[in-house]
Amino acid sequence: MNAPLLDVAGLSVDFATYGRQARVLDGVSLQVRAGQHAALVGETGCGKSVTLRAIMGILKSPPASIAAGSIGFDGADLLTMPARQRDALKGTAMSMVFQDPMTALNPVFTIGDQLATIIKYADRRMGVRRDKQGRKQRVIEVLDQVRMPDPERIFGAYPIMLSGGMRQRVLIAMALLNEPRLLIADEPGTALDVTTQAEILALLNDLVAARSLALLMITHNLGVVREMADYVYVMYAGTIVEHGPTEALFERPSHPYTQALIECVPKLSGTSTFKGIDGTIPDYVDPPVGCRFRPRCPHRHDACFERPPNVTVGANHVAACWLRQPAEEVA
Ligand SMILES: Nc1ncnc2c1ncn2[C@@H]1O[C@H](COP(=O)(O)OP(=O)(O)OP(=O)(O)O)[C@@H](O)[C@H]1O
Ligand SMILES: [Mg+2]
After folding, report:
1. In the prediction, which pLDDT does 98 show?
2. CATH of the domain at 207
3. Whose C-alpha lies nearest to ligand 1, atom 17?
4. Which ligand sits closest to the CA of 185?
5. Is 24 close to ligand 1, i.e. is its CB under 6 Å away?
6. What is the reported pLDDT for 124?
7. Structural domain for 144, as ranges
8. Residue 238 Cα, ligand 1 centroid: separation in angstroms?
9. Fewest Cβ atoms nearer than 10 Å: which of 76, 89, 266, 313?
10. What digits encode the pLDDT tens for the residues 265-285?
């Protein structure tokens, strides 16, 4: 198998809040290979956005600090490489689509100006010569690729003049301008109505597939996971509790948290009613020792006071749980 493009290993992130340290990410490891589409799922507050922001190097420090681990990109550690080299990778080799299009766009510049500026810097970096008209042409081209209606008109428009769905398309265009190899998306389209969100996700799916991009996306919607992701990481309270190929994970969820998460999805057929997961995410300042899911787990027992091993439960399918037979432990 080819080496992973993104290789996060043992990443721990602390937040300083009111003089206390909260360990929000506790030894997170995940990998995304070229062309792979990975999803990161888990309930609100479990550390998904912090993970993506750490990868993009946009965690505000303080309050955040990286306590341990490495973030490998194409074989080099983003955390130890010179800042200039890291900044050059951001927005070029890896790019992020943000959740909230309004705050990610500058309200006082036209869409055309904002996209053309990105092209100008990219051209300078790559030694490409392109005049103003050439840059405009490229902007129109990329707006067309994200299926923006009437790109010529949108070129001169300000963000406020666009609908939420159109703004999200602009953000996707921005993320794709530099032809990245890895696209990171934090719940794209969740600020939009369901129909527009479905359109945005379908667009993203097509663009990523057409370019054979690697994708790491956060979503709350397990239906979207099944449709878009070939691999899933399940996060609970800053730890990865299970990961595996999408089909295997849905067919044989092996961690009680994953099982509960899947149970929560209301079924269209049958009589099952919506069930929530009892309890809440723990306090990160003083989290439960051992398995962080222990206090909410229906299967908890004495062993769970120790950190569970990563147990291989199928091909490329791993669950961090004492319930599983530790036939084969993986790092
Ligand atoms: N700026 C901050 N200062 C202090 N703590 C923070 C800060 N940002 C995040 N956290 C902590 O990190 C935890 C995880 O936050 P994160 O935004 O990653 O959650 P999430 O999984 O993305 O949730 P959601 O699904 O709601 O977006 C929060 O519960 C909070 O305790
Ligand atoms: Mg989030």
Report:
1. 81
2. 3.40.50.300
3. 49
4. 2
5. yes
6. 86
7. 91-181+190-214
8. 10
9. 266
10. 766 555 555 566 788 889 999
